[in-house]
Amino acid sequence: MAKINRFAEMHAEITAWRRDLHENPELEFDCFRTAGFVAEKLADFGVDEVQTGVGRTGVVGVIKGKSTTSGKVIGLRADMDALPIMETTGAAHASKVAGKMHACGHDGHMAMLLGAAKYLAETRNFDGTVVLVFQPAEEEGGGGKVMVDDGLVERFGIQEIYGMHNKPGMKVGEFAMCTGALMAAADQFTLHVEGKGGHAASPAACIDSTLVAAHIVVALQSIVARNVNPLDGVVLSVTSFVTESTAYNVIPQRVEMRGTVRTLDAENRVMAQAAVERVVKGTAAAYGASVEIDYELGYPVTVNHPDQTDFAAGIARNVSGESMVTTDMPPEMGSEDFSYMLEARPGAFVFIGNGDTADWHHPDYDFNDELIPAGCSYWAQIAEQRMPVSGG
Ligand SMILES: [Zn+2]
Ligand SMILES: [Zn+2]
Hints:
Helix content is about 35%, strand content about 25%. The protein has about 400 residues and is an alpha/beta fold. It has an eight-stranded mixed sheet with strand order 1-2-4-3-5-16-6-15, sandwiched between helices. The chain has a four-stranded antiparallel sheet with strand order 10-12-8-13, covered by helices on one side. Strand 1 and strand 2 (about 60-65) form a beta hairpin. Helix 3 (about 30-45) runs parallel beside helix 4. It is elongated. It binds zinc ion (2 copies). One zinc ion binds near residues 104, 139, 360 and 361. One zinc ion binds next to loops.
């Protein structure tokens, strides 16, 4: 069994990969060096098949077990992209690319999956097939969807899929998850409010787009307060408000606003979109202004499947012990494009503690290398225990 000690022996090697990836961050689909690094390592480990260019810059590796009589095929997924942030950690392995950094720990996710891949390719103590999925463009661009649209699950015959993300503030090696909605759908809107501009001393001759837009901001807050069941999680935030005027004496013709809507189920998602359109149009009309609404649907709700989540919880307990596993964590209002993979096949997404570090997307954030053995052991045991060798 893939005991945590096995990965303690590989800790220095896997840490070195992690730091190399950290020094060389790449954004969205531009993960060319990163994909090359991953593909080369997989080939070195002697995995049975390596395919690059799946979903643009995605990489897929296939490892067959000692036997494949079970016919089972399990996908394990890591994300590869970094963020447009200027790193301030001052670490020896800090980003060498100004304005880009691995501030979400995807460098660590790749390193842990590579560590598990090396072990699984050596030992092959399972009856079935492991498909290693390295996905670009999680932060922006929906690489998870692009890989699914490129036939990821059908081409490799994936039947179940598992994902893992580090989480600052949880103890190293601690695991947390829940069945059902784990992370939110993230949709966004842009509103173009058009009034009638003019001299600020003559408001009666104008339709003041700033006033109309301000009423829209306030009215939008009634959706979460009055249209949503108070026990459901919905967030609506207006995040940008820009008028055309920079002068003291001009009433602007136009105001542009942006915002995000986060929901944890499909009904609230549909309801919120309809409510935004109704409230925005109605408020603008009340003041004689016109408005254009661009409403974009982003990543869907990340929904964990009960069977696979129970199984994942059992593996997490094997790795870190009963007291280090939470199976009823409250959902996060962030979003994750692993959701597309969970729409395509059943599976589970879990969090693993990153210790007391800066939060995700903060310039001081760094993946905590101490969690590497637990993360690798989790991956390896998913393969070994979901597809056990008979009598083994
Ligand atoms: Zn992130
Ligand atoms: Zn992330």
